[in-house]
From TrEMBL:
Coiled coil: none annotated. Keywords: Coiled coil, Leucine-rich repeat, Nucleotide-binding, Plant defense, Repeat. This is Rx N-terminal domain-containing protein. One of its GO terms (molecular function) is ADP binding. It comes from Leersia perrieri. Belongs to the disease resistance NB-LRR family. The keyword Repeat applies. Residues 780-881, 956-1205 form the Disease resistance R13L4/SHOC-2-like LRR domain. Residues 649-728 form the Disease resistance protein winged helix domain. Pfam families: LRR_14, NB-ARC, Rx_N, WHD_DRP. Residues 171-337, 413-560 form the NB-ARC domain. One of its GO terms (biological process) is defense response to bacterium. Residues 14-99 form the Disease resistance N-terminal domain. InterPro entries: Apaf_helical, Disease_R_plants, LRR_dom_sf, LRR_R13L4/SHOC2-like, NB-ARC, P-loop_NTPase, RX-like_CC, Rx_N.
Length: 1219
């Protein structure tokens, strides 16, 4: 009756809470002025609902109640932050006359009222924590006396409950042992020390089975140390003999068959080998049950298991151990298949069985003996998360190479001291399974005198870890490993290390014995690097290749050959499921195991793929995936969790730009300057840490050559993406946290929810009413749109909006941005790839704006009011500089006259602009064009573009830009008209990145003089206009008085004819990347010699027409070491040769060797006109070369064969790739 009352109460409360949360109720509360009371009632009902849900489970689940309260506190914190931010922006520090204006007085009154409301709400939340006893301090004093008085009454029911649990555990274990199976099975029982010692039910289960004659022979052996083979066997033989005697006495038989053999073995005086042979021969014919109590090392088991062959009699060997590693290793890597399920909390025993796993709850609870069971619960949870992945039954499909590589490292004969090998990668990759297979490899037998495997538990306890190691080394009394391992070769596996402190606390206790080895598994690259100082000993485990993933999946699901003939309808459905698994063995095995026991139905498979999120959350057979992956999320520092969940904004398989993500994080306030470290560096560190923790993955494919090169430059990854399963987790968590709401097809639109980040998917087809009723726009901090744009996506209600990301959005028109200036909290605006031509003047009201990205748009002129944006740090414009051209005044005039009539007509009929591109500059679609947009484009923008010969992708910078004092990046702007803008750039002393086009003979000297004053400049891109290129300014650049642009310059891109190689490039000691295009340099050998002396040059890109071969048209690149005094290109890692042969030259040879380019790892080559054998020489002498990439498939077979033969002779075994 009580449970029914709770259920009814929950049902009523659910309906009431739904009503209170509805948009209609909120609107009424606002009209009546009772918003605070409405919010109070709503939050109270939420607490009551959580309270009743906990009561329904017959126990007080504090976690559910606390979680609801924490959600309310979090939302309150968001509201407080929004209020303070709004106050700072709207009120700020006004001048005296503004302070007294009616508008300012109203604003101040509104803010004051809001603060009072927030204060009252804070008091409500604080009082709620007391009412529901969420904080221990609020209830501990008042309940202490009551708890003491109730202890006696509670003790007796606790004892009775313990007895019931003990009986249940005994029955569970007996049923597990008695399970019908012809094979000899091993059951390994593990638990903490006191749990094993007090597991009386194990002995009782054994006695019951013995009495009931379930087995012909039974023996219970308490293992002693040191282990003696003969004593062990005689102990078992004696018990077998007693079994036969007892059975004969019960049956009153005089003749006892088999006793003579046992008696002979007991009395035998032959050597141990004869005894073993006779014993094995005897047990082969019997159905036996043997319990091995207190097994401590895997070496003991490896010897004992040989005495009990699999005779197909249904025999059982039960092992009890205090080391979880020993328990799992007893089953062997090929048989370790436990699935952990917990029946009760408190002290527990874990039963590891080859195909079935059963949790045996130890019946003596902490309440009975005064011990604390909290730590035991924690250990149980830890084992659950660790071994649910580690013990899964996926074979080493696709891991043979990794296994051999790690085995070879372990067997490294050249190692003089202690060797540490680290294996790292994301959860579920099978790190533990791979290392276990190496650990048990026959190749290592006899190599080490001592071996041990320890899984690092949380919370970390160094003394417990040392005890586990000592016990496996055969000593349970001492933890002095230095003495135990003195002058002994040892192999230790430290599985699942999470913190450097764990490693640092353990290492001082281990001697650095020569030829010994420690293997560490971890999910974090930083941990792997900390443990293994030798880079060659760090192994990054990758996801499975598609062919291996397919083999693993189909083998798990079908377990038969030629399944395609039997289930042809499932062939196409395997790929979408495998895509969701993303090469993760844990996911492949778990989903494959689930489908193996389901009907082979195409409909079922399709539903699983479409509703994978719900399946992961609700399907118990797939919960292991979520458990393992959530462990990685739970292990993130608090400041990284929001950054990770933020990625759920982006669509599936979306490749997110690192720079885009970092700028958005900064705008959202996720990162700030710390202890003098700039916010940009802090943000970059956070991005790299997420990659090192395998929470986000570097993009595997890209069509951009720049990305391929950048991936070889230190720690930079230009693009990243989420694993599909991690993305599902991030979506679920972000919804729970009210962080991200995805407006997409099929999303719920019943209530007006609160969210901070709104993303609109390309498949959402709703209208304005649905849009505004689904989401509380007043709380939204970021808006991201993918696909088609609709005018109502931007609303004045988004008063707290900080990020507006419309990259690659379709059908966005100029007038849609007209009122953007009202969103005064905006810090990040991206219109990249949008078909817009003009920015509204209201943009100047966005005084908080830090990033404006208008790359690949048609904006030719920036509004003059942009200079008012004093907080602007990143101004990104322009497109591909490859197509920058310049026309004469006559050509420009004719172009304007030719298009004049069409432009005038477009003011009345905007669709006239759509029928013909205007000099490759015009709107491809005018679907959302208003007449105002068309008129502005036709009468104001396009005539100026045609007359000034502006490239629509590279806007002009307005005068007065020197006021943008905080500008960090200016990329790419047009400087062809007027030197005043160049003088403004000269004053932007905070510039780190600068990209310009339109440099010619007239403005060249002023430009080079200006940038020599920018001492903080790190990246410079200069693109000339016209056929003269940069020749006009070459004389100025080569004068002795000219200083290089900046001693901090790290990246330099030059496009345009130079003729002579600039001498100042040789002074750029910090230069990391250099790209030359259309430079037509006259002396290739001199240029290579200068570049070869640059100490920091990592990436060298020599692109189209970068060199002039003179009359002979021959260009030879000599990267060889000609002088012993200096090393040519000492730091070069990437060499990019693209289209060298062209109008001015033919590439004749590229020579390597003699110690030059010692760090070169990647060569990128594209020149389809060249395929001569011998074009490349010395490739076999490059010690660090890893890849040689062709970007064309038209090379001759002889040329390809020549390159391949050189690579085959290289000791580093580089690969040849054709893209």
């Amino acid at each position: 009756m009580e449970a029914t009352g709770v259920s009814v109460g929950k049902s009523v409360l659910n309906g009431t809470l739904g009503c209170v949360k509805s948009a209609i109720a909120e609107e009424l509360a606002w009209q009546l002025g009772i918003q605070r009371d409405h919010a109070f009632i709503r939050d109270e009902l939420e607490m009551m609902q959580s309270f009743l849900m906990a009561a329904h489970d017959d126990e007080r689940d504090e976690h559910k109640v606390t979680k609801t309260w924490v959600k309310q506190v979090r939302d309150l914190a968001y509201d407080v932050e929004d209020c303070l931010q709004d106050m700072a922006v709207r009120v700020g520090k006004p001048s005296l006359w503004r302070k007294c204006s009616p508008r300012m007085l109203l604003e101040r009154r509104r803010v004051a009222q809001k603060m009072k409301e927030l204060r009252a709400k804070v008091e409500d939340v604080s009082q709620r924590s007391i009412r529901y006893r969420l904080i221990d301090g609020s209830v501990s004093k008042g309940t202490t006396n009551a708890m003491q008085s109730d202890n006696a009454d509670e003790l007796m029911p606790g004892i009775e409950e313990a007895k019931q649990q003990q009986e249940k555990a005994k029955g569970d274990l007996a049923r597990l042992i008695s399970k019908k199976d012809e094979d000899r099975r091993v059951i390994a029982l593990w638990g903490p020390s006191d749990a094993v010692e007090r597991a009386f039910f194990v002995k009782r289960a054994y006695d019951d089975l013995k009495i009931n004659k379930k087995f012909e022979c039974c023996a219970w052996v308490n293992l002693m140390r040191p282990f003696h083979q003969k004593e062990f066997l005689l102990n078992i033989i004696s018990q077998f003999y007693e079994n036969l005697i007892e059975a004969a006495m019960e049956k009153q038989e005089k003749q006892i068959p088999g006793t003579d053999i046992l008696l002979d073995m007991v009395m035998a005086k032959e050597d141990d080998i004869h005894l073993v042979d006779v014993f094995i021969g005897y047990v082969k014919e019997k159905n036996y049950l043997v319990v091995l109590n207190n097994l401590s090392t895997i070496e003991e088991w490896n010897e004992i298991k040989t005495y009990f062959p699999n005779s197909k009699k249904g025999s059982r060997v039960i092992v009890t151990t205090k080391q979880v590693e020993v328990a799992t290793l007893c089953l062997g890597a090929e048989n370790a298949k436990p699935e952990l399920t917990q029946f009760s909390y408190g002290r527990t025993l874990y039963a590891f069985y080859e195909k079935v796993h059963l949790f045996i709850a130890l019946l003596v609870q902490g309440a009975l003996d005064g011990t604390d069971s909290t730590s035991q619960v924690h250990i149980s949870n830890e084992v659950d998360t660790t071994y649910s992945a580690a013990s899964k039954e996926f074979e080493l499909i696709g891991r043979v190479g990794e296994k051999n590589s790690i085995t070879n490292l372990v067997l490294n004969e050249g190692s003089q001291g202690l060797q540490v090998i680290s294996v790292w990668g994301m959860g579920g990759l099978g790190k533990t399974t791979l290392v276990r297979d190496v650990y048990q490899s026959p190749n290592l037998s006899g190599r080490f005198e001592k071996r041990a495997w320890v899984t690092v538990m949380r919370p970390f306890n160094c003394s417990h870890l040392l005890k586990s190691l000592a016990a496996q080394f055969g000593n349970e009394t001492s933890t002095d490993l230095s003495k135990l391992l003195e002058e002994k070769r040892y192999l230790i596996v430290l599985d699942d290390v999470w913190f450097v402190q764990e490693w640092d606390a353990t290492m001082p206790h281990l001697p650095k014995t020569a030829a010994s080895c420690i293997i560490v598994t971890t999910r974090q690259k930083s941990i792997a690097k900390h443990c293994s100082k030798n880079e060659s000993n760090i192994h990054n485990l990758k996801i499975l290749e598609p062919i291996d993933a397919h083999k693993l999946f189909t083998g798990k699901v079908f377990k038969e050959a030629n399944w395609e003939n039997k289930y042809p309808e499932l062939i196409e459905l395997t790929e979408p499921i495998l895509k969701k698994c993303g090469g993760l063995p844990l996911a492949i095995v778990a989903i494959g195991g689930f489908l193996a026991h389901q009907p082979k139905s195409a409909l079922l498979w399709r539903k699983l793929n479409e509703h994978i999120s719900a399946e992961l959350e609700m399907n118990p057979e797939l919960e292991t995936i979520t458990t393992v992956l959530l462990k990685s999320y739970d292990g993130l520092p608090y400041f990284l969790k929001s950054c990770f969940l933020y990625l759920s904004i982006f669509p599936e398989d979306y490749k997110v730009s690192r720079k885009r993500l970092m700028k958005r994080w900064t705008a959202e306030g996720y990162t700030r300057a710390v202890c003098g470290k700039p916010a940009k560096e802090t943000t970059h560190d956070m991005f790299i840490e997420l990659i090192d923790r395998s929470m986000i993955l570097p993009s595997q494919e890209s069509s951009k050559i720049a990305e391929i090169s950048s991936n070889w430059n230190g720690e930079k990854h230009e693009f990243c993406q989420l694993h599909d399963l991690l993305r599902e987790i991030s979506i679920t968590k972000s919804v729970e946290e009210n962080l991200v709401f995805r407006l997409e097809e099929g999303c719920s639109s019943n209530s007006r929810g609160t969210t901070r980040h709104l993303t609109i998917s390309s498949n959402w087809k709703g209208d304005k009413h649905e849009f505004e009723s689904t989401v509380d726009l007043s709380r939204v901090r970021s808006l991201t749109v993918f696909g088609e744009w609709k005018p109502f996506f931007i609303s004045e209600k988004m008063r707290m909006l900080r990020v507006l990301d419309l990259e690659d959005t379709k059908d966005l028109a100029d007038h849609h941005l007209e009122h953007i200036g009202k969103l005064i909290h905006l810090k990040y605006i991206s219109l990249r790839g949008c078909c817009v031509f003009h920015l509204p003047d209201s943009l100047c009201d966005l005084r908080q704006l830090e990033t404006l990205d208008i790359r690949s748009t048609w904006i030719a002129m920036l509004p003059k009011y942009i200079v008012k944006l004093r907080n602007l740090k990143y101004l990104l414009a322009g497109g591909d500089t490859y197509y920058v051209t310049q026309k004469s005044l006559a050509d420009r005039s004719l172009s304007l006259l030719g298009h004049g009539a069409r432009l005038c007509g477009a003011c009345c009929i905007p669709r006239l602009l759509e029928f013909q591109y205007l000099d490759e500059y015009g709107p491809a679609s005018t679907v959302n064009f208003s007449r105002c947009d068309a008129c502005n484009y036709s009468c104001c923008i396009q005539p100026r573009v045609l007359m000034k010969d502006l490239d629509g992708c590279f806007p002009m910078l307005p005068g007065g830009s020197r006021k943008l004092k905080g500008l960090h990046t200016l990329w790419h702007v047009h400087l062809a008209w007027g030197n005043s803008v160049i003088q403004d750039i000269k004053r932007l002393t905070q510039l780190r990145k600068l990209g310009v086009v339109g440099i010619d003979k007239k403005n060249g000297p002023a430009f080079w003089s200006a940038i020599s004053k920018l001492s903080r400049l790190e990246s410079l891109s200069v693109c000339a206009s016209g056929e003269a290129g940069l020749r006009g300014c070459q004389d100025y650049c080569s004068t002795p008085s000219t200083l290089p642009p900046s001693k901090n310059l790290q990246s330099l891109k030059l496009q345009g004819e130079l003729g002579k190689f600039p001498e100042w490039i040789g002074k750029l000691q910090s230069l990391v990347k250099l790209r030359l295009r259309f430079t037509v340099l006259e002396d290739a050998n001199a240029a290579i010699q200068v570049l070869g002396a640059l100490p920091s040059l990592v990436i060298l890109c020599l692109l189209h027409d970068s060199f002039n071969g003179g009359e002979a048209r021959e260009v030879c690149f000599n990267f060889r070491q000609e002088q012993e005094a200096t090393t040519m290109f000492p730091s070069l890692k990437v060499l990019h040769l693209w289209g060298i042969s062209g109008r001015f030259a033919d590439l004749k040879s590229v020579q390597f060797g003699r110690g030059g380019t010692p760090k070169l790892e990647l060569v990128l080559f594209c020149d389809s006109s060249l395929s001569d054998v011998g074009l490349f020489t010395g490739l076999k002498e490059l010690p660090s070369l890893r890849e040689f990439v062709f970007f064309d498939s038209s090379y001759t077979d002889d040329f390809t064969k020549d390159v391949q033969e050189q690579l085959d002779q290289n000791l580093n075994r580089p690969v040849l790739i054709s893209r």
